[in-house]
Amino acid sequence: MPGIVEVDDLIKEFRTFDRREGLIGAIADLFHRRYQTLRAVNRITFEIRPGEMVGYIGPNGAGKSTTIKMLTGILVPTAGAVFANGFIPWKHRTAYTRTIGVVFGQRTQLWWDIAVVESFRLLKRIYDVSDADYRARMKQFDDILELGRYLHTPVRKLSLGERMRCDVAAAMIHNPPLVFLDEPTIGLDIVAKENIRTFLHEVNRRYGTTMLLTTHDLSDIEELCRRLMIIDHGSLLFDGGLQELKDRLWQESALRVELRDQDQALRLEALHIPDVVCDRIDKLTYRLHFPRESWSTAEVVRQIVNAVEVRDIAIEEQSIEEVVRRIYLGEELKEWSR
To answer: In terms of Cα–Cα distance, which of 160, 214, 179, 238 is closest to 52?
Structure first.
């Protein structure tokens, strides 16, 4: 099955003005300006299959939003190719934009001074949505996002969480097969985030909508996406599953052990297992960590329960936040053995 989005060797460069400091520098700039070329996206290649929900993450300035703007046709690449929904986005913008939905978390696509429902009705006309489809989608929006309470409120009077619910709904009103979401939960509280995640998951399940999601909230990725792409300094560092990412960077396993009494604590501290480090958390609780290549978790658990009496034992899973933090700090990813 061909990809609904195909990106090949994509490059985007910006020419920036290197401004000199001070009055003398300002005068010099009048006669001789210095320019430099910034490569924001550097030869990235990927394919997204129909129905996939893909997370696209990276630190600030990594090139995420620049990529999204090229995929939506807002920016023209310096080099490379993009095909989405059978279109070249920047060449066929009018036809292409009718087949996609876009949410930019810090910008609204709704009309600021009119009621939310009036914006929806305008979008219904723009996208030629039938009356029956419009009523069905508005009911779905109300069922999950609870939009009915503020449909008749001007957009400017909505809270951020209310406006984001409306923006996400507006992007889906014509049931596009492909949706781009750039920070859709930015600045929202836990309840608002969960409502939007539930809605996106339901749209994907019901209609097979393909979604590309950029976010700094990795809980969005863990709840919605099975596949993750990581970009930094314009280059694609990783493209694969969340568990694959953990497997490549998660070099240690850890156990949290709660013991029955102080005698067991003394016995555990005296127990020597090569390469297993035992750290005391409190009087009867310890954290054991060990290299995954040296020990399996099951083997360490077996040795512990055979040596001491435990009240509770738990495996500590490494969070996706910790894995991605290590990448952002510059930890190298090993080459794939394809």
So the answer is: 179
Whether residue 299 contacts residue 30, with contact meaning beta carbons closer than 8 Å, is answered with no
Torsion of CA 44, 46, 51, 52, to 10 degrees: -70
3-state helix, strand, coil in the chain (%, to 5): 40, 30, 35
Token pair, residue 253, equals: 């396993």
d(C-alpha 210, C-alpha 203), whole Å: 9
218 shares a domain with 284? no
Give the H/E segment covering residue 285: strand 285-291
Quote the domain boundaries for residue 256: 251-317
65, 159, 168, 242 from 198: Cα distances, Å: 24, 20, 12, 20
204: region left, alpha or beta (phi > 0 left; psi from -120 to 50 alpha): alpha
What residues have CB less than 8 Å from 16, skipping those under 6 apart? 35, 36, 37, 38
Domain CATH number, residue 147: 3.40.50.300
User: What is the pTM (predicted TM-score) of this model?
Assistant: 0.77
Does 176 lie in the same domain as 269? no
The pLDDT value recorded for residue 192 is: 82
Residue 333 lies in a domain: no
How distant is the alpha carbon of residue 23 from its chain centre?
44
Residues 26 and 42 grouped into a single domain: yes
Query: 10-residue block means of pLDDT along the chain (338 residues)?
Result: 88 84 76 82 95 90 90 95 94 93 85 93 94 93 88 90 90 95 83 88 93 86 89 89 74 86 89 89 89 85 90 77 67 45
Q: How far is 21 from 323, CA to CA, in rounded Å?
A: 40
Dihedral sign, Cα of residue 44, residue 47, residue 51, residue 53:
negative
